[in-house]
Design brief:
With 344 residues, this protein is an alpha/beta fold. It contains 14 helices and 13 strands. The chain folds into two domains: 168 residues, Bordetella uptake gene, domain 1 (D-Maltodextrin-Binding Protein, domain 2, 3-Layer(aba) Sandwich), CATH 3.40.190; 147 residues, Periplasmic binding protein-like II (D-Maltodextrin-Binding Protein, domain 2), CATH 3.40.190. It comes from Sagittula salina.
């Protein structure tokens, strides 16, 4: 049953379960445990908020479970997803039984990523990739249907000859391949780039060339606030011959970019949560992200990225969980033709 206005505005003595479909050792756990005490303190009545873990099948098991809980709208259950929850949904993975249209977004969190090259190749970059198309690249990848879908599709759109080496366990392993000279193109998410690649740049062992960008509240791709001096992929694509920022390929890339980076993680209420419950959560979220010390607190865990709330979170989620039939088929065909991968 949906919550009443009174209960939606007073959670004194109650316990709220914050469920994520991952183990307690990953980045989503860090994100959830960052937000949980802050939301607890901002919600009316200061309820106890406990993070629960329901890992399995790349997060689809936990998301499928949350789909069965859509009648629990009294505000004592919230759910947090990630890009690896959105990608199977966008690709039509048969394991997916959840529907994002049934969930109410409260907060949408972004991250970013930086693409970099060895200095000798980086020296050829002058804002476009035209002088780099004749090179042959090796890229350590976790898999074409993981978050690596975003860089792999970007490389294809830019006309680069990239041979992915599938099976690396994480982006850190991809970076180590780069450091050992086993790969000559790589990207890292913002926090990993700052911690592990900036020292390489300072030693002239790596050259950053562009970021994936960030999404503003109007849904427009803008420069990454953590790396404002670096061009976005959109800017580089516009400057590179043969790369288009409109049409089916672009629509496909942007859909997965938004799902994987610009709105990587989202906090949801179930469908049956009343307007009063939703408003209480949005007000709490806005209080959290607008606090004077929030940026400093969030820097290490979340990075310097927009934390979208309310209507902005809804818009970001709409962009992250909708893809045209043409764009979806483009990706499915590309995965099959280039990598022999069939989603079924």
């Amino acid at each position: 049953m949906a919550a009443t206005g009174a209960s939606a505005q007073d959670y004194s003595g109650q316990t709220i379960e914050y469920v994520i479909p991952f183990s307690e050792s990953g980045g989503s756990a860090q994100w959830a445990n960052f937000y949980a005490p802050l939301l607890s303190g901002a919600l009316p009545g200061g309820p106890t908020m406990v993070v629960r873990y329901r890992p399995g099948a790349g997060s689809t098991e936990g998301a499928n479970w949350f789909q069965t809980q859509q009648d629990k709208g009294d505000g004592t259950l919230i759910f947090g997803d990630s890009g690896s929850t959105k990608f199977p949904y966008l690709l039509g993975d048969p394991r997916v039984r959840y529907q994002y249209k049934d969930w109410q977004p409260v907060v949408a969190s972004a991250t970013g990523g930086v693409v970099y090259l060895p200095p000798d190749l980086g020296a050829k970059f002058d804002g476009d990739m035209d002088d780099l198309k004749e090179e042959f690249y090796l890229y350590g990848s976790q898999g074409a249907t993981t978050l690596d879908l975003v860089p792999l599709l970007a490389f294809k759109m830019l006309g680069l000859q990239v041979d992915p080496v599938f099976g690396v366990k994480g982006r850190g392993d991809g970076r180590l391949m780069f450091e050992r000279g086993e790969a000559n193109i790589d990207y890292q998410t913002s926090s990993a780039y700052l911690a592990n690649v900036v020292p390489l740049v300072e030693q002239n062992l790596a050259t950053p060339i562009f970021t994936w960008g960030s999404l503003n509240e109007e849904g427009v791709i803008v420069r990454d606030p953590t790396f404002p001096d670096l061009a976005t992929f959109k800017e580089v694509c516009e400057a590179t011959e043969g790369c288009e920022t409109e049409g089916t390929a672009w629509d496909a890339w942007k859909a997965f970019f938004v799902a994987g980076f610009a709105n990587q993680k989202t906090i949801f209420l179930p469908q049956s949560a009343s307007q009063e419950t939703y408003d209480a959560y949005v007000a709490a979220a806005k209080q959290v992200v607008s606090a004077p010390d929030f940026t400093e607190k969030a820097a290490e865990t979340l990075g310097d990225y927009p934390q979208l709330t309310g209507a902005a979170a809804v818009e970001a989620t709409n962009q992250a969980t909708n893809i045209t039939d043409e764009a979806k088929q483009f990706v499915l065909d590309w995965l099959k033709e280039d990598y022999g991968i069939t989603v079924e």
